[in-house]
Amino acid sequence: VLQRCDELALCTERAGEITRTFCSGAMREAHQRVERWMRDAGLTCRIDPAGNLIGRRSAAKHDGGRVLLIGSHLDSVVNAGRYDGVLGVMLGLALAEFANEAQAQWPFALDVIGFCEEEGVRFATPYLGSRALVGELTPELLARRDSGGQTMAEVVRAFGGDPDRLAECCYDPQEVLAYVEPHIEQGPVLEREGLPLGVVTGIAGQIRGGLTFRGRAGHAGTTPMALRQDALVAAAQWIVEVERFGRSQAGLVATVGRIETAPNVGNVIPGEVRALLDVRHLDDAVRQAAFDGIAARAVAICQERGIAGAVDWTQQEPSVRCDARCTESLSQAVVEAGVRPFCLPSGAGHDAVLMARRFPACMLFIRCAGGISHHPEENVAQADVAAALDALWRFAARLAAEVRSAS
Ligand code: HGY
Ligand code: MN
Ligand code: MN
User: Fold this and answer.
1) Could you write out the DSSP letters of every residue in 56-97?
2) The predicted structure's pLDDT at residue 384
């Protein structure tokens, strides 16, 4: 698993770092490698019309057409670590290989899914891959443009997908027994607890929004300070307030992760700034109130400074609770693997957010060195990965026993 994560780290669109976005050449390379491993493991591979890579291990005979889904995403943030997303896909593949070696006769198929997009880098909208699987990759989203001006539909088509056949990505909820997503914790809690694994109770919702500050560009040498409409100064003042908001309540986090300024020239007063805001809290009402308050401050600051300011778009995902039954079964599997059971919520978003809308979904966290993630220094220990595989194996075995006893 770890060697494969190392190998996939070589699939990047920027030399010297790991950056692998939706429908990029780097993603195509990653697909080629993962497909080869999947085929070597005897899995039947397909890339669905949205660009998700799926490898299937068939069920034992008379299975009733049920399937267990396991996986995570293959895309990355800019300058990422090597485990976020990828680790879950490689654990799914290893589970299939383990099952082959043990000649496990599970009464369900196992689909190992490498989602094509989770991070929201290219179109500022996350979860595109899992959105397609649950039938929510809408025409509005497909019409969105990336920073190069291409629409999502064009990008999908150029990658070999088909925006007109997205219905084929969807699983029938009757068919899916469960979705389990193994993922690096991306935080320090398990390390503090001295535990290799944790079971996820739920995932904090997010609101992401795009804001524009529109002032007036002008000569940096001749325009007196009092006569300026500097969009970047307004945005900077607001960003300081975003931090203050984020600190004002336990569990609330608020981030401006990206700004673009125009014309972005040293001797010109910034005329326009576009910012991306990300607000999260487990309580949907708290999160919404915080977002509204932060957006209102942007508008007020712009008014005070005599410039225009507006929220251009928002995208939100409510908080999600993992499926109680699957989560209990996963906890039991963790105990059987010799690990003290421990539950924790996730502040990071995951494909499980979308999958939970249609299917019983659960998540297994793997301890993260120093809690560092979305960073090249992201790391996991081999023994922890082994413990995760052991727990997943037991989880699948429990599910097999349940299905058999139900029939
Ligand atoms: O942003 C997130 O929480 C996730 O890593 N995409
Ligand atoms: Mn991530
Ligand atoms: Mn992730």
Assistant:
1) EEPPPSS-TT-EEEEEEE----TT--S-TTHHHHHHHHHHHH
2) 98
